[in-house]
Amino acid sequence: MPHQPDLRIEDPAGLVAAGAPAWACESLRRALQDRGSSAGLLIRLVADSASAPVDCPDAAEAFAIWRSEEAVSIWGRDARGLVYALTELADRTRHAEGDDPFAGPFPLVERPSARIRSIARLFCSESEDLDWFHDRDGWRDYLTMLATNRFNRFSLTLGMGYNYPYHNAWIRDVYFYFPYPFLLAVDGHDVRVPELPDEERDRNLKTLKFIGQEAARRGLDFQLALWTQRYDFDDVPNANYTVEGVTQDNLAPYCRAAITRLLAEVPEITGLTFRVHVEGGIAEGEYGFWEEAFAGVADAGRPIEIDMHGKGLDHATLELARRSGMPFTASPKYMAEHMGLAYHQSSIREKEYPPEQARSEREQLSEGSRKFLRYSYGDLLRKDKDYSVLYRIWAGTQRILLWGDPALAAGYGRLSMFAGSDGVEWCEPLSFKGRMGTGVPGQRFNYQREGLAPRRDWEKYLYQYRVWGRGLYAPDGPADGWQRHLRRHCGDAAEACEKGLASASRVLPLVSLTHGPSASNNHYWPEVYSNLALIDGTGRLNYTFDMPAPVRFGNAPTFDSELFATAREWVEKLLAGRTEHRYTPLDVADWLIDLARTCDQALVSAKEARDYLRPEAQRILIDVEICAGLARFFAERYRAAVWAELFIATKASTLFDRVLDHARRSTMAWDRIADLSRDIYHDDLTYGPQGWLRGSWQSRQAEMRNELLDLESLRGGGLTESLALSPEAERAAAAIEARRPVTAAGGLEVPETFLRGEDLTVRYSGPADAAPVLRYRVVDQSKRWRADAMRADGNGYIAVIPGDYLDTPFHVQLFASATALGAPVLMPGLGGDLANQPYHVVMQA
Questions:
Q1: What are 147-177's pLDDT values in tens digits?
Q2: Whether residue 822 sits in one domain with residue 689
């Protein structure tokens, strides 16, 4: 066979002479050679955007690709833009179905939405994580996957495995928990782990260096997260390793020297993340330690980002980072320790407002004056801020099941830059697996059925990374970016997999947002839910500390009390004859049932596909069916909770049949999940030592059935009071039956900007039965919302936010509520895909 010329790359400006573009260029060559189709292809790199036939965005990391008869041309705004263009072509080549290796939409012009698009990979378990930590081929593939999917930062996260490192008997697996002595011997400090051979410590450092080098080759920022700076080394009787040589006097100097040495050993590190509240081991208010630690960063002699985890973060600590001369970032949680919908919660839970007195001196900020920063952005979003704000999405909602909704990912891409923010870091799937000493060798993949586990743990989630990364980068990017992956791996089941997984992926974020018995991922895991009783009974152990009494399903707060009402709140308003402008539990139940039906339709369609039994398709479809079951389970719980709250308030026994009906339906839905998962997933999925952090859907089945038995015994045993419906109860029950769903509407005219200290005028021109109510608040979670009735003005309504309220360093957010033709309306409210921002943000000019 005659020799065919290889791929030619014209690069007259020398754009890929070195660095990440050179790696991406080689990656494209390998992809073409593996395919056997590199002959005769010409790639032309264009340095001057003015000569391009497309509009090239003047934005960092932007790129453009276009095609002519003779060549494929690419332009990148910078080195990272070139990497994205080249890896896009390589990815098309790996997924090409026909003769054309570059088949796909042309031209392709993209620019980033979220400035920071980060993935955090957590080391929590020696028995489950040490293998992947040292898997060099795995790192090459993993980091290539991140760069190909437009992530620009990778965060290796150490020491996040425990909270409260004082007097903590749960502390068992401490590998990398206090990370420095597991990586370094620091000159002048005799600090060591006696159980750790020097050879293993040195191997750990070599692996860390390798990860840094491979990240830099691909153009990724390499963030090292050092979440724990000490723990009670002498008061952890169950720890598998000990640390010798650290005292209260030498801790800060040792950590400073270790940080500087670590940055010298791994010059590819571009930033360090610190947990700066008490759970990192340093009592709040000990500013001397952080002054030393930040000085250790500066001692490295190059710009290193100091990223401070937001809980309890105060302006004194921000000032210490500022004085270090390093770039600095505050990184609050996006929505508590869970994943909600794409927008930022408009209000925090009542429990997050500062108490009159701090819980302890060690927690004077995070459980005291700065408690409003516990689970959201607090007061960090000042217009004049000189630091970045990055949101961290914790793995509390969904740790096992696949996620992949292009609409919701695009929503995060659009909205993570909220009010001058900079992006988002996502704790990847399987985060916290084996946490707190519960690692089980061989159970990293969660599957017990043969043939479902992929080669590496993260490969189950390839589609998830793809949808998430591309949605953050270009929310309006072409669907081919994720559909090509499904076509290759799922064959003719691809379309059903895409539709089913998109709907399934909205279920648990919606549940997390609207049912928040605990903000802590250590206590609330909606994916493998621990039951919270409708009336009284189960769920008290893990939820009591973090929700108000009474501890029952219908009283669990939402994570956005400005837009969502609990069952108890709604029933109290109905009994008082008042209307509810917020979404009710029945609105949420309707959404969940619609999502379940879409999942079911996709599952029926998939079963007709020739490639239905491919492992890749099965992994998706199994998880879709479990999520559909969870949607039905929670929908029926929401409905049951409404009737349960009305029954509790009125003692009208005729209402109890409605409670039982929906409770039985929810239990049937859980039984279906348990039957499906029983032979697929392990019986004990370990994400922590307590019963609510381990187990499985099948192991939870008994507690779901037990509550139903309790409810039936209440009814059948005549233990409920036999009271008749009062007129108020009768009206409330009728209102529930006749309830009309809250709808989203336009018509609110809102300026894009306002001037500090000047009035802001908002108009409404849509239909309304009475004057709408304008609801507004400065973008500061420590403040309360205000509500003003709008006044008639011509053919519409008008409201003015006074200038004295707007004499503020913050931007402002607002929405309006009304009734139209008897139905509640929110403006703008949530759209049909649940992926938009349900309020307006007006930026200060």
A1: 999 999 999 999 999 987 877 888 999 999 9
A2: no
